[in-house]
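Below is one record:
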Amino acid sequence: MVPQRIERETLIEAPVEVVWSVVTEPEHISRWFSDAIELDLRPGGRAVLHWDGRGPVHGRVERVEPPHLFAFRWVVHHGAELADDNSTLVEFRLSEEGEATRLTVVEIGFADLGGPEEDNQGIYDGHTSGWAKELGELVDYLRQR
């Protein structure tokens, strides 16, 4: 059975406002996550992530509660249009810990994907390793700033 959620957490030596900017502003997102992004940062807003050599990843902003919660839904296959059975929900939760920020990323919905279980397991596995890599890149990006 495919797990429903991935959860990753990291402590970042930066104020919450700085981390908020890095996870919500296109000029920063394109430095640690995707190669480019179109983002309308409001509930219902459109999100399109681009990686060189692949089709776009379409999404929709679900929640924006500065500077503590940003959530979006995105498709799991490059080039597909957003639908309930081909997307997962990603939440970035930020909390202050002294002068640092605890960032928790949760991605939910893998068990609900419409597709063969074997394919859904592959998507889950890919996103699990992907978040480990991407959060490492986010921390490295913030260290360089």
Notes: Residues 117-144 form the longest helix (28 residues).
